[in-house]
């Protein structure tokens, strides 16, 4: 397929689902014009980029870590690091959203803080395998690097650079909002979630990456990790349907040590000397320990 065709296909896809979007500046509805831009009723205009994403934020952030962080994350994902998580998420969706699938002819899912898009793409694949085909997925992230990587790899999903505090979506558009190991904005999630929709949030549990934490934090006297505050904030905003803890060991090999270190914010505080030291240690495995929260309004 030529580049021009891909672009046209994406513009067509956005046009079909233009009702999802509202202007991040003035909150007015938007429509697709001339097959290349979303235009609001106050004439704010957002062009579809060459590689097929929308830039719907007043700002974006870019750090020197981004590119390596996202390519490392994708490598870990493609080697199965998050497979049990994505499977558990798709099972939770089937459990709590099945009535919605039966009621509605088309469903909309949003990954808020999608990074390089691998979770959303893998979850969508799993849902398709389970027979859920009439759905449209949207991924948003403030990092342009993440969204560019997502748009290049997964052309059939809608990707946008957007700010959680000003989600560029109309009210009650999404049947599922995912928020995976990423910051939240519950006021915005509540606004864009449909009446019977579900919010699915994944947070680290006590032993998440404990082997790495041990390496980094042994010198510092850090208090034990607790996610009590995150859980109680979630419950302040949503009726909790389930809280499932998922713990597994991911077997490492020498090739995966570097991407593992690069994808985790734990490593950002490390000095160059720490970094060198840790890279030379070959951990046999790392623990993945997560809590999957599912709630509705
Ligand atoms: Zn506007």
UniProtKB/TrEMBL annotation:
Database matches in InterPro entries: Methyltransf_25 (IPR041698), RlmA_N (IPR048647), rRNA_m1G-MeTrfase_A_prd (IPR016718), SAM-dependent_MTases_sf (IPR029063)
Which residue range or ranges hold the 23S rRNA (guanine(745)-N(1))-methyltransferase N-terminal domain? Answer: 21-56
Q: Show where the Methyltransferase domain sits.
A: 110-182
Question: How is this protein named in the record?
Answer: rRNA (Guanine-N1)-methyltransferase
Task: Write down the species.
Answer: Paenibacillus polymyxa (Bacillus polymyxa)
């Amino acid at each position: 397929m030529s580049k021009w065709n891909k672009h046209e296909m994406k513009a067509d896809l956005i046009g079909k689902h233009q009702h999802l979007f509202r202007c991040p500046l003035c909150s007015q509805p938007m429509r697709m014009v001339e097959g290349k831009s979303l235009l609001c009723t106050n004439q704010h205009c957002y062009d579809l980029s060459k590689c097929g994403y929308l830039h719907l934020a007043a700002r974006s952030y870019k750090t020197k870590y981004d590119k390596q962080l996202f390519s490392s994350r994708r490598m870990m994902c493609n080697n199965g690091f998050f497979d049990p998580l994505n499977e558990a998420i798709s099972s939770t969706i089937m459990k709590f959203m099945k009535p919605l699938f039966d009621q509605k002819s088309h469903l909309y899912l949003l990954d808020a803080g999608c990074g390089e898009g691998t979770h959303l793409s893998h979850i969508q694949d799993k849902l398709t395998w389970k027979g859920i085909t009439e759905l449209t997925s949207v991924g948003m992230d403030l990092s342009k690097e993440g969204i560019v990587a997502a748009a290049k790899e997964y052309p059939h999903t809608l990707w946008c650079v957007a700010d959680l505090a000003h989600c560029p979506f109309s009210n009650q558009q999404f049947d599922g909002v995912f928020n995976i190991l990423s910051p939240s904005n519950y006021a915005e999630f509540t606004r864009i979630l449909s009446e019977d929709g579900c919010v699915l949030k994944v947070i680290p549990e006590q032993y998440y990456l404990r082997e790495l934490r041990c390496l980094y934090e042994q010198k510092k006297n850090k208090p034990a990790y607790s996610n009590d505050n995150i859980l109680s904030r979630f419950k302040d905003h949503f009726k909790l349907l389930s809280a499932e803890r998922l713990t597994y060991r991911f077997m490492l090999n020498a090739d995966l040590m570097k991407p593992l270190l690069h994808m985790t914010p734990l490593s950002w505080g490390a000095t160059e000397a720490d970094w060198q030291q840790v890279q030379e240690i070959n951990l046999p495995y790392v623990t993945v320990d997560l809590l999957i929260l599912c709630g509705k309004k």
